[in-house]
Amino acid sequence: MISKAVVALALAGAAEAFCPSPLAGLATAKATRPNGMELRMSDSAAPAALSRRGLLSGVAGAAVLSVGAKGASAADPKDLVRLENGLSYQVKKANSGPLAALQPGVVDGDFVIVDYIAYLRDGTIFDNTVKRGKPVAFQMGKKQNIPGLEAGLFGMKAGEQRRLFIPSRLAYADRGVCFEDASKGCLVPANTDLVYDVTLVSVGPSPI
């Protein structure tokens, strides 16, 4: 469950968070870790919701797990919601309070603040906003994220949690997320299915 501190941080910074910096540069710009490792993505890569600095920080903190990776790829088929685009998800926490029916669900164009832990299907964590203590913010439908993450947020209400099972074609496809030095491998290998544990911290309509 997301801590009150993280929620307070996200809400206090909402004005800044709702103006996310352009992420398309991730495809071509170099981002250097303290030990000199550099990341690359191809020019055709879909923009991701995580910043260059955020991705590297998440990698640095991946060894300390806020949520266990064990069983990340396991799912009871009875609990799965399957979408036509190939995405499937489990509802881990639903907003069932007395006012839940009055709360808006995420729709195209909304601004959202999201916490997530991102896994490879073997349970390896490659990004963790919970560990960083800094949720990501973006506008739905603006291609600021991998398609599978956005698709999995539709209909969610603030405070709800889902586990998303994202096929590679709705993630990084045949590009992956790799180091500049090919000999150092990839954080996300090409054609890799992903699992995201997501918490919707807040949602708001577009001001336009």
Description:
Helix content is 16%, strand content 26%. It is built from five helices and eleven strands, in the order H-H-E-E-H-E-E-E-E-H-E-H-E-E-E-E. It has helices at residues 4-12, 14-17, 52-60, 129-132, 147-153, and strands spanning 31-32, 38-40, 81-82, 88-93, 111-120, 125-128, 136-139, 161-166, 177-179, 186-188, 194-204. The strands form two sheets. Strands 3, 4, 5, 6, 7, 8 and 11 form a seven-stranded antiparallel sheet that branches. Strands 1-2-9-10 form a four-stranded antiparallel sheet, covered by helices on one side. The longest helix has 9 residues, at 4-12. Mean pLDDT is 73; it is low at 1-69.
- Report the total helices: 5
Percent helix: 10-25%
Which of globular, elongated, flat, extended, rod-shaped describes the shape?
globular
Please tell me the overall pLDDT.
73
What portion of residues belong to β-strands?
25-35%
Q: Can you summarize the main beta sheet?
A: 7 strands, antiparallel
- The stretches of 5 or more residues where confidence is low (pLDDT under 50) are 1-69
User: What's the total number of strands?
Assistant: 11
> How would you spell out the order of helices and strands?
HHEEHEEEEHEHEEEE
Strand-pairing-aware structural class? alpha+beta
Rg over CA atoms = 16 Å
The CA-CA distance between the termini, in Å, is 32 Å
